[in-house]
Amino acid sequence: SLRHILSHCAGFPATVPFYIEIMRANQAERAGVLHSKAAGAMGFNEIFRMQPKYNPGTSSLYSDIGFILLAHLIEELEGGKLLEKIAYD
Question: How far is CA 54 from the centre of its chain?
């Protein structure tokens, strides 16, 4: 839930080095992916497939993953980039 994400108890790990797979893809068959929307999609695909490290609500662990998802949700609901919304609103 959003409450679990905001309180860092949603079950996500603290962080995941998504950049490793993105860099690997950029050097291999998908050169140029590093600065594309595909790089973000690769990260989100990993998050969406991720199993919780613990049952939500049972523990607390600061998680970058939760806030990455929260930013994505805001962008989806608002129809634009979060930083653009903050800068121009």
Answer: 18
Place of tokens 């950049």: 19
Which ranges of 1-89 would DSSP assign to H, the alpha helix? 2-6, 18-27, 37-49, 64-78, 82-88
Query: Who contacts 64 (Cβ-Cβ below 8 Å, separation ≥6)?
Result: 14, 15
* Rg, C-alpha atoms of the chain: 15
Query: What does the block give as tokens for 43?
Result: 């990260």
pTM: 0.65
Nearest to 61 by CA among 1, 26, 13, 20: 13
pLDDT tens for 13-30 read: 888 887 777 777 777 665
CB atoms near residue 29 (< 10 Å):
8
